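User: Modeling request: complex.
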Amino acid sequence: MISNAWSRVSRVFCRSIVGAVMAGAAGLAAGAAEAADKILTVGIEQEPTGFDAVKGRVLGEAPASVMLTMVDRLMAYDADGKLVGELAESMTASEDGLTYVFKLRKGVKFHDGSDFTADDVVTHFNRILDPASKYVGLQFISPIKGAEKVDDHTVRFNLKHPWQPMRDIMSAFALGTFIPSAKAVAADTMNRQPVGTGPYRFKEWRGGDKIVVERNPSYWNKDARIHFDQIVFKLLPDQQTRHAALQSGEIDVHWTDRGHSIVQARSDPKLTVYSRDGEGGGILFLNNSKPPLDDVRVRRALSMAWDQKYYVESQLQNTQLVTKTGFDDEGKCDSGYLGDGKFAEARKLVAEIGKPVEVELMHTATQRGREFGLLWQQLAKRAGITVKLKPMDQLAFVGTVFKNDYQMAGWRIADAGDIGPQLFALLHSKSPYNLAHYKDEEMDKLLVTMRMAPTPAARKTAMCAVVRKMNQDAPILWSTGRTHNAIAKKNLKGIRPLYQGVVDVRFAWFE
Amino acid sequence: MRYLGRKLLRLAFVVVAVTTLTFLFVALLPGDIALLVVGPTASPAEAAAVREQLGLDRPMLVRYGEWLAGLVQGDLGVSLRTSEPVGEAILSRLPVTLELMLLAQVIAVALAVPLGVLCAYRQNRWIDRIVTLTGFAMISVPPFVMALVLIFTVALRLGWLPATGYVPLSEGLWGNLRTFVLPALSIALIEWVTLMRLLRNDMIMTLQEDFIAMARAKGLPAWRILFRHALRPSSFSLITILGLQIGALIGGTLIIESIFALPGIGRLLLTGIFSRDYVVVQGCILFIAVAYVVINFLVDLTYSFLDPRIRVGGRDG
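Assistant: Request completed. Predicted assembly structure:
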């Protein structure tokens, strides 16, 4: 009897222990799941070079995702695509378009506790506009003469001439448009320990590994819902590694341009693909200073031979846009685009030249670069043009283009909201960035007209004229348009549209 | 002391030779970091301005001399790309590489020693042949292929372990070890073969020695004879190769670190090379060269521990 009682007690005791362990484990798992819900992990392909506009120099799409969580801009596009004030409550342009006045929000504090005032904006912009600072993006904001303080919460920007992109430039994703703490800049800590006014504040930057930001409890926008305690930006440069990390659950979202991953993710019930057509795209320089490309007939023949649609279908799995203008012309622009595989017409032009046409195409020594080159060879052959391929390492590639030691080379026009400044830089005969060495007086006039256009509609009309001339003279060809893609776990919501390809996770949440 | 002095002299020579060659090779690579730093929208003039800012327009000898002068004062310079001090960058990444190396070697030795002993004991029997065949098959697989196979099967298909990433020890031992299992296995599953074969061959010779016959005659059990008496004198080649492997792994982990996204010295070096950040490359190569020499020095010292008959400097035992 004693042994029966003992065995009953033992059984009850054992069951209690097991039950407690299971409850504990369930509690731990629930706690772990809840803790996991409070941390968002974003895979980024590139580590920032820094967060100071002058020292950091360049901000790519991936580092912009990081910057966006910590540092605000004066203006921004909201979830519905409307340009709204962020650190600015309003933006007003003068009638002559030469001054823009920004009324700043009151009561905003930087992460270090200091107040955000007009001094921060003025100090920042005058620093990057000063040629002595050697701010890398200066040429793209060169129409801005300077910024001046009107009062503690009002800033006036003075322009050299009317400039429509001013409306968009304050919402761009460039180091120069994010407003840093003047104190942090003066203390020379902004570059590695950024201080801003954003919904998250800097916590840790482990070089080569990750950047961690944590919730900012004093964020100025009380209507905004900040769902995560931390966002971890994990550096995963290799695209396949990033995608594997997403599939295995180690990260929650990442940006990609690989057609295979995007197509596979679209059929994966656990993933969502976010896509947005942007401006700009991949381009090809045809070096106007090197024969035979100094002959417009050769350039036109190459333009006719290129079949962008086929390229996007066969090599990019239809995950990129086909473009004839590089901007959203709403279908109203007669682009003069010559492409889409008009081989017969191309051969006629080549026949007019009367001698064999041979050109060299420089491409990056990557799989995508090689495929691009091989496609060009085949298409050009059908037009009667021989294309030789020259693969090259990325850095050597850029250096070779800068030294003008090439005939054809791929490049890109970044999606900066308004591609006008880039078109001006690439096509104006006096621009130091005219890497195709194209000189045309008529084009120079069209570019100036575009730059000085008084209204957005006039600017689009002028831009259309620029692009039409570019397509007809073919110093630059459109190789593909721009579609931005990001892949996320299905239950991750609230990712904003991919403006300029930047993955905005500030207000995302797990469902 | 003379021995130590000779070793230090050798170290200094290695440092100068290796860093000079590295500097030369990086300088000869086409392209420069200024192009990466300015980004794709900069003009040639802006690239030239950045090149000047970074001091890349100065002669190679001048830049190397400055770097050496900084080195003598303990300053390895600052990354041209990220402005991070190189010394700090290496120190912060060292634990990752060290842990990967040590875990890989521990696994390799844990596989090699029992299998090597077993194969020596059962020389030319079926177990010896199977282990040898398996080993040759594994050693033919490049480490990056092994890594990808492990990621695909263990991480993606089975979901047992993470495919990428790093959890520092401060955030939990279990989490930390989980992130190192696959990377360490990618290395160990290839390295164990060489160690096993060396040990097997040396042990076969040792098992023919008189003292082993004496031990058998005394009736000692087989395991005791193998592990207590035969293993130690058979370990010299194993230790030597282990030391060489560890030294080689310090820089050789870069492919594995890249695939598994581990923020170690190998990946730092790789990023430095691709971005032509010569300051980072110099610092990493210097560190790897010094570590290699030091590890081999420690291997030499281990011999006298293993075999008291060996004395450094020619004294009698």
